# Entry
Amino acid sequence: MENIFEILSKIYVQMSPIFDERLKRLFLGSCAVVLGHGGILAVAKLMKVNRDTVAEGKKELLGREQEGEVNSKTPRTANRIRKIGGGRKRIAKTDESLRKDLESLIEPLTRGDPESPLRWTCKSVRRLANELTRMGHKVSSVTISRELKEIGYSLQGNKKVLEGVRAFVG
# Structure
């Protein structure tokens, strides 16, 4: 007969591909609660995870039980996994010279009516991303598109005109 550690380990291996970060923490925390004293360290070693993750899961689990499913420390919406403001910061916030370099690339080729707020550039976002990458910035075309939108540029496509074709109205 298998002991509790082997059973928990097998359950974790089966379920971990479908766990998001929060469910993983809660599962590990519940295992620590079931094991009792020393459970955090035992679960961390058995599952090969950081013990702080297990401790946070246990704390969150016990906090939910005591507060009736509401955790005052980390307000969450129904679909939210991370805390508000969590995750990696956008490159535009961490790379201060990105916007200046982007504007230097698009300024000579800016199009649009000077009196209208609508401006656009003839360069594609992929070309701009490649040029900025050569300048030492780690950016993608999606990032460039977002930055252009934030500084007031619109993405405009070329309208193709078929020359020499006229409709004859008689």
